[in-house]
Amino acid sequence: METFTIKDIARELNLSTSTVSRALRGSYEINPETKRLVMECAERLNYRPNPIALSLKGSASRAIGVIVPQIANYFFSQAINGIEAIAYNRGYHVIIFQSQESYEREVANVQQSMSRKVDGLLISLSSETSDVAHLQDVQDKGVPIVLFDRVSSQLNVTKVVADNFGGAFAATEHLIQSGRRRIAHLTIQPWLSITQERLAGYRAALEKYGLEFDENLIRYGTFGPDEVGPMVQELMHLDSPPDAFFTASDRLAVGCLTALRQQHLTIPDDVSIIGFTNLNVADLMAPSLSTVVQPAQEIGQVAAERLIDQIERKHRALPIETVKIPTELIARDSTRLSTEPTEHNEVYTTRKSTTL
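^ thats the sequence. predicted structure below, dont judge the formating
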């Protein structure tokens, strides 16, 4: 394959090589339209910077560390795709670690990242992480950090998240508008940011429609494959059992669906289910799963952009921000009213992205 250089891009667009170089680095000095043209041309010519050569120009390693709870998780695999796409185009290596939802492994991952002298760190917290002192130590050493998806208010760093509140509100409202009144919520550890935000959206939707928030309908757990069944069984044996489930992830929704079938309940006639993530097989399930879409790849791209900007502008003050990416609700058969036709598939955008 022919190798193209910055000079080729400059010649193609009739720009100076210095302008092309700054555009590829995402420099604030270059206007967005020029950046777009340069990036499109670089992609068309299959231009790829050489991280090793770039690292020889200074003391930077041209590598970023990425720590996720689990690579096999569909959301995180898509987020990594977004991170790598940005990093590759801007001349950075990506070193990926997974904590396997363990606080101890997360701490070890951070230590390993520092030993490899990464220029910055992207991290989504494990389900066991409530103490972020290990990340504060990294920040105190001057290494840029960007948190994504699962974040902590204890750290004064840029955070890139989905609109969890808006997505949860939309999911709960959809169930209420479908005639459901006893909506159970299956979620994960209560100290996680995504748990708190989705629970808040769920409660706000109940309040809007004058429905009581019932603590008995909330269950906290992990992503363990065998724990959803007992939680669902316990809920369905309440004196007033739920007529719908809103789960904080599609993986929990799949477990919920299995448990309800084992109790010979029909979805959605007896009980409705809606999840959160949009697994790549959600529309292939029987019934197809209603869900809130987390824009995983976009979250990864934005997080990588913010981190690399901080790395390359570390001598200029950058605002610490929380960036919220909009979610979408896709209504499929698992929340379909019995009077509605099959193949029901509607998409709702919850809100515009915001920066706080």
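The longest strand covers residues 63-68.
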